[in-house]
Amino acid sequence: xxxxxxxxxxxxxxxxxxxxxxxxxxxxxxxxxxxxxxxxxxxxxxxxxxxxxxxxxxxxxxxxxxxxxxxxxxxxxxxxxxxxxxxxxxxxxxxxxxxxxxxxxxxxxxxxxxxxxxxxxxxxxxxxxxxxxxxxxxxxxxxxxxxxxxxxxxxxxxxxxxxxxxxxxxxxxxxxxxxxxxxxxxxxxxxxxxxxxxxxxxxxxxxxxxxxxxxxxxxxxxxxxxxxxxxxxxxxxxxxxxxxxxxxxxxxxxxxxxxxxxxxxxxxxxxxxxxxxxxxxxxxxxxxxxxxxxxxxxxxxxxxxxxxxxxxxxxxxxxxxxxxxxxxxxxxxxxxxxxxxxxxxxxxxxxxxxxxxxxxxxxxxxxxxxxxxxxxxxxxxxxxxxxxxxxxxxxxxxxxxxxxxxxxxxxxxxxxxxxxxxxxxxxxxxxxxxxxxxxxxxxxxxxxxxxxxxxxxxxxxxxxxxxxxxxxxxxxxxxxxxxxxxxxxxxxxxxxxxxxxxxxxxxx
Length: 508
Fold this sequence. Notes:
The chain is of the alpha+beta class. It contains eleven helices and 20 strands. The protein has a five-stranded parallel β-sheet, sandwiched between helices. A five-stranded antiparallel β-sheet has the order 8-7-6-10-9, with helices on one face. A five-stranded antiparallel β-sheet has the order 11-20-19-16-17, covered by helices on one side. α5 runs parallel beside α7 (252-289) and α8 (341-360) crosses α9 (364-378).
C-alpha cells in the first residue's frame, strides 16, 4: 500500500455513481483507478496491484458476484478485500449470496460518504493486519530455514554461502557474507534474491572469476553504501559479517532479522572452530602414537604412509608398527574399530602392548592371542581390533604371518600379484586363533599392507576394492611413488583413516 493511502479499484458502469465514489475516496487520501465492466476490472487486477475493490453488483458484462468469486479464486488476488455496492434495494438473499461468494462487505444504495469510507477503512484494517501477519510468518519461515541451513554447514565455505543465501532470501535483497577459512583467510559469498551464490576466497576478488558474474551488483563493492552487521562467537575468534543494501533494512524488524542471521552465523562458525580444533588435536594425538620414523634396513627397504580421514570425519584408530627382534623384523598393521579419540587412544595401547609382548614372544599367532586376551579383558565393548602381523627375516625372506580379521598382505613378484590366504577372527572377542602361516618371500617380492580405508568404496563390496588395489600394484614399482599413487587414486575424500606400509625383499 502507498504511504498516502490504499490503491482502490472502483468498478461501476454508471458514470455518475462512479464519479461520486471515486471523489469520496480520493478526498479520503486514497489512490483510485476506475473500471466500467467486470472484464476490465479483472484485466486491471491482473496487470496492477490493488489494496481493495469497490464493486457494483449490476455490471453490463459479468455479474458482480462472478467477478468477486474470480478475484477470491485467484491466489494472487485472493487476499484483496471486495466491497459490493448495489445500486438498488436487494433482497436479503442477494446480500447473503454476495458475502458467500467472496465479498467482505455489502452496501446498498443510498450510501453516504461516511458509510462508504468507514466500510472501506474497516476492510483495509483487516487486510493490512492479515498482510502484515502473512509477511511476518513468511519471513520467520525463511529465517528458520536459513538458520537451519547455516547450522548444517560442515565447512567454512559452505557456511559463508548459506549465510549469504539466507540473508538475501529473508530480506529480499542481494547480500554479502564474509567469514573465516580454516587456515586464517576469508571466504566471501555473494547471493541474489533467487538464491544464486558466488563464492571465492578474499584474494580472488581482485580479479573476479567467471562464476561471480552471476551475482549482479552485490552490496559492499568499493564505494557502495551498505548496512552491515559484524558478529563473533568469542572475543578471540575471527568475526563474520553480513551486508545488504541500506534500503533492505528500513525498519526495526529488518534490522533485527539481519542481526539474528549474523548471530546465527557467528555461533555456527564457533561450532566449526571447535570441531577444527578437536580434529587437529586428535590428529596430533594419533600421529604421536605412530612410529616417528622407519628403521633403516638395507636388506629390507620399506615405506609407510598415514592419511587421516577427510576434514569432516572423526579420527580413527589405524596404525602400523615395525619392531626389531634381533636379525628379524616384526611388522604390524591394524585398525581399532570406531572413529573417535577413544579409538586412537586404544590404538596407542595396542601398539605398546604389541611391542611388550614381542619381547617375550616372536611367533605372530601367539602375540595375537595375548593381544586378544588384553582387549577382551580391558576393552570388551570398544576394543575390537583388526591386525596383521608378519615376522620377516631379511636374510632369506622367511616369513611368519598371522591375521586377525584384517585385509591380507598383498604380495607382488615376477610370478604374479595376489593376497596371502591368511585369515583369523578379529581381536577382542576371545575366539580361538589359527597358527601362523610360514612362507618364503621370493627375491624382488614387494609386500603391501593396508587398512580397509584404502580398499573400501561407497556402493561397492570389499572384494571389488581389493581387486582394484591388486591390479594397481607392480613388483618393480618404486615404493614411495607407489604409496603416493595409491593414496591419490583410492584414498581421496575418504571417511576413514588409511595406514599403508610397503616393504621389498631385494633381488639377490
